[in-house]
Amino acid sequence: MTDIEVGPATDPERFLRTDTVVWFQEMLAAPAETQLLGLPADQRFAAEVDGADETAYPGIYGVYPLELAVPGDRLVPCAGLTWVGVHPDHRRRGVLTAMLRHHFEQVRDTPGTHVSALHASEPAIYGRYGYGLASVELTVTLSRGTTLTAPGLEEQAGTVTTRLATVTDADVARRMYDCHRAVVDAGAVVGAPEFYERVCLQFPEWLRDKEPWRILFARRDGRDAGFAMFRRTPKWDDARPAGTVEVHFLVGEPAVRLALLRRLVDLDLIGSVRLRSGSADDLVVAWAGGPRATAGVETYDGLWVRVVDLPAAFAARTWSAPCDVVVEVADRHAPWNDGTWRIRADADGAAVAERTVADADLRLPVEALGSAYLGGGNLAALARAGLAQEARPGAAAELWRAMRTDVPPAGSMMF
Ligand SMILES: CC(=O)SCCNC(=O)CCNC(=O)[C@H](O)C(C)(C)COP(=O)(O)OP(=O)(O)OC[C@H]1O[C@@H](n2cnc3c(N)ncnc32)[C@H](O)[C@@H]1OP(=O)(O)O
């Protein structure tokens, strides 16, 4: 096998050339640092291989510094793995494997950060590296004028007004960041302020004939209370307006989201509204009156979570029920997690994981723990499916009851 060295990517132009060839996209005209906005210089990494072409790195990856909302209304630091790409000349020779090993070591050595998370380009890639699917994401399409019923929220929704802005308007990125950070459900991720500046970038090559992204702010008591980010695409069917609205963020408390959605399904000249990043039990489906009352519900994988430092990650979230389970964890790529742990949670929601020589009640791969980390991946169902092995009957359900949450994890914004 070729020697692969992973370290800082110090040449932004070379980084972007790799990205462009990996994703077969056109080169953007904007300066490299503008294109990389939001990806801190010390969070850009590259793989070098002897004899590689000097113009592009053989492999690249980057990390957005994110905060992840974990059970118990806590925001914890999270390494947002992104910009992963291996040059077509170097694929299937272990470059990704070397980069992910490097990433896990970096995260392990970063004080306060214990988990990594990502959105996968393809579902088959990341499970083998210990990422578990932590949330299921719904894309919900609503027809224009869909009635959204929520008697318990009417009074609050009635106090919300909405006001349209464009991402290029002054201060929009900061307002988005403030709103997003103020109201997050477990499962959601929040970026650093620069991340929202990135979201607001409008490269001409991306824009072409498209509408610039609009931000519909919700206002209550003279302050921002949430927002929706959307763009419309005009369409006409037999001379009837049938434009589509694509919504990428819907942020705020439930009553605020309801008010924003009511405005979106009432926009002129549209036929449908497509909402990304819904949770498995999304409020929108309930407000519409069930899946058949929508114009379509599609299910995708949401956030993939990788527990990098097992005991620290477990201590960072709140647990839902007491448990005392001995778990044998298989972890090839972060060997410091590999082995047997006694996991105990108390009635106050605190958990401790300690090394033990006791016999395991349950054997599972580390990705199963990533899957359950946000309260979503059902470990008892996993055991039934033969993807975790119980030595003590009921051990998987015991651990699951302690990790699960009342509602499924929220959808995560794309990063
Ligand atoms: C978080 C994000 O940024 S998601 C974006 C990921 N990037 C992309 O999809 C861009 C296009 N694809 C690529 O750049 C590359 O194909 C990558 C990054 C997916 C894989 O890089 P490679 O260096 O080829 O992977 P590597 O050689 O380390 O492969 C490791 C293993 O994963 C497997 N694997 C790699 N890619 C895939 C895939 N797309 N589907 C299924 N298995 C895969 C390999 O077969 C190999 O298996 P093995 O260990 O059993 O032999």
From TrEMBL:
* Pfam families with a match to the protein in the record: Acetyltransf_17, Acetyltransf_9, SCP2_2
Q: Where is the Enhanced intracellular survival protein domain?
A: 310-409
Q: Which UniProt keywords apply?
A: Acyltransferase, Transferase
Tell me if Translocase is a UniProt keyword of this record. no
Which residues does the entry assign to the active site, renumbered to this chain?
Y126 (proton donor), F415 (proton acceptor)
Q: Where is the Eis-like acetyltransferase domain?
A: 194-292
Q: Which NCBIfam families match?
A: PRK01346.1-4 (NF002367)
Q: How does it assemble?
A: Homohexamer; trimer of dimers.
- HAMAP family found in the cross-reference section: Eis
Q: What is this protein called?
A: GNAT family N-acetyltransferase
